[in-house]
Amino acid sequence: MQREVNKTDFREQAKKLVAQMTLEEKITQLTDNSDGIERLGIPGFCWWNECLHGAARSGDATVFPQAIGMAATFDKKMIREIGNAVSDEVRAKYNEFRQLNGDTYRYEGIAECAPNINIFRDPRWGRGHETYGEDPYLTGAIACAYINGLQGEGKYLKVAACLKHFAVHSGPEAMRHAFSANVDDEVLFDTYLRAFEYCIRHSNIHTVMTAYNAINGEPCCTNERLMREILRDKFGFEGFVETDSGSINDIHNGFKITNSVVNSVARSLNAGCDLDIGGKFRNLKEAYERGLVTEERITEACENVYTTRCAMGCFAEDCEYDAIDYSVVRSMKHRALAKKAAADSIILLKNNGVLPIDQSKYRSIAVIGPNSNDRDVLLANYTTEPSEYTTFYKGIKEASDIPVYWEKGCELNSNSHANYRSALNAAKRADLIILVLGIAPGMEGEEGDTNDHWTIKGDKPTLNLPEVQMKLYREMIAFGKPVIVVNVSGSCVNLTEFAQSGDALLQCFYPGELGGEALGDILFGKVSPSGRLPVTFYATEDDLPPFEDYSMKNRTYRFYEGTPLYPFGYGLSYTSFAYSDIVVQNQSVSVTVTNVGARNGADAVLLYGEKDGRFELIGFEKIELTAGAAERITIEYEGRYSRFRVGFDNGTQK
Q: For the segment 215-236, what is each residue's pLDDT rounded down to a tens digit?
């Protein structure tokens, strides 16, 4: 657990500052673009910045793997290092922006709208790649590692992280401004709130963002039970609560539970929201004049917000993070970490012996496919434009000692066969074919962000890949040469045909700016794959419940009643690991892990506990072992379980 910053001192400092403000001044502090108060020496401050997997939307920065890729590493230590690197870059930019302007504007500050810890309950949800997968424990553990890295270990917060979206939010995107997710308390607490509670208890989190949707008919940003009874009273949260952008408008326009913006802001503030992303809380002056809110509640909200602003050292002369220089941005250390994280996030799903590639067996390689030389599939959403990046083709070419041909072959999702015949010629010339297929951020994402007619406001209509890609694959298979398929996506797609007829199959979640170099290292054996699936890969969506159904029956590995194509936690290696001498004692399980193969490699050791007749993930550790080496590890867990299982061996629990 991260060392607790003394919130009491910061709250007292906040109370003294807020006590000097007029009612009007306090109201101006409760929006994302907070006004400066010149007479008190308080500069303006923007509460909206993004760092889901790197310092986003504010110029050049290191782009790490998308959140779902970070989860695929199952490596808490590395995720904490990534958080630390990201917040160094965010702070460096903030320090420069502040010196330039005094105030900060959107995407220039140190209040971050990350991480997204919603549960990826359905593979059709477009924003699922922003999350850490389908399991509540994995989500909480990876999120805490990232939060603690982001916020630092100093006297002050390096940045303030934010848990979002509170709560029960995972589509449909097309309906999110008027959709009610209906769940009973068992499902609510067992699935949708577990990661929130875990993060509140295991990190020094300061901010929580409400979701757009309603829960059982009550919008999250007006849900007093959610924000007061559960978040504060039950979970012990002491920070401030903010709305998602524009969600105040949904109260009267979407859910229609009020008839005006003034009534909406009053209802949201009274229910427990402290700050509005979107500026509508500036209407609180009229709400106060009409007797809809009290000055005491406005003061309380302002004190909650200012406690975090004080904790970030915004009014301090001794904040250690003010000295972080811009030279950290895209440093060699950060880029090396991004490359390692990308390699560790790649998951080997099938291998008939063609991997790692033995270049002595081939005269040339053809790299083909719509995702093979594309930048966007590296970067995902909530990102920036890095000054340098390596596509999959370029990474493979740089890692290869033999000729590498490239052709796009087809578009992601259209009947255009541009360069199709050229791709056939490249495959004919080569002895080995690497086919890079899948989808892209423009085909799965947030409402309004996607640009492809294939989506439903960002959500996927099907798990099947577009037929134009499948036709290209079948043409490649017809050559009778070894075919390695690399699927690039932020979510589960149907990989059945590749699993049946391809020689090797890898899953690559949007891997960040150096994803191409990482893939090259994996394919040619410089690095042994160690990623594991943070979500179930189903063969079809046909046996899943309706998308709008928020019960967990027949969803995720914990409740799925069918046989998945590839289960949660699955991932192969170029070496093998054995587990022995398993001992359960004092809320921990100890096990000796031995690399029994001929190659060095890393293993994510997964601990499952049985409760109520089903097993669920309760702990994990990532270790690296040279060939023949052994190490004894101890995995701690919380709760009571009747039986335990440790690890995966080619996808089979034991």
A: 999 999 999 999 999 999 999 9
360, exposed or middle or buried, with CB in 10 Å at 0-12, 13-18, 19+?
exposed
- For residue 230, the one-letter residue type is I
pLDDT digits (tens, 9 = 90+) for 61-83: 999 999 999 999 999 999 999 99
Q: What is the pTM of this model?
A: 0.97
What's the CA gap between 426 and 429, in Å, rounded? 5
Q: 425-434, pLDDT tens digit by residue?
A: 999 999 999 9
If residue 497 lies in a helix (H) or strand (E), which one and from where to where? helix 496-501
**CA dihedral defined by 254, 256, 262, 264, rounded to 10 degrees?**
-70
244 catalytic? Reply is yes
CA-closest candidate to residue 140, choices 76, 45, 48, 226: 76
Please give the angle made by the CA atoms of 159, 15 and 313, to the nearest 5 degrees. Answer: 25
CA distance 460 to 469: 16
What's the rounded Cα separation, in Å, for the pair 570 and 121?
18
Q: In 3D, which of 398, 586, 369 has the Cα closest to residue 485?
A: 369
Q: Are 284 and 269 in contact (CB under 8 A)?
A: yes
φ and ψ at 486, to 5 degrees? -110, 110
Q: Which residue has the tokens 């709560």?
A: 167
Distance CA 523, CA 196 (A): 37
Give the list of residues 6+ apart from residue 19 with CB closer than 8 angstroms, or none. none
Distance CA 71, CA 138 (A): 7
The domains of the chain, with CATH numbers, are: 7-328 (3.20.20.300), 346-559 (3.40.50.1700), 577-653 (2.60.40.10)
Residue 48 has pLDDT above 50, yes or no: yes
- Side chain identity, residue 83: G
C-beta separation of 280 from 264 below 8 A: yes
Question: Catalytic: which of 32, 122, 244, 503?
Answer: 244
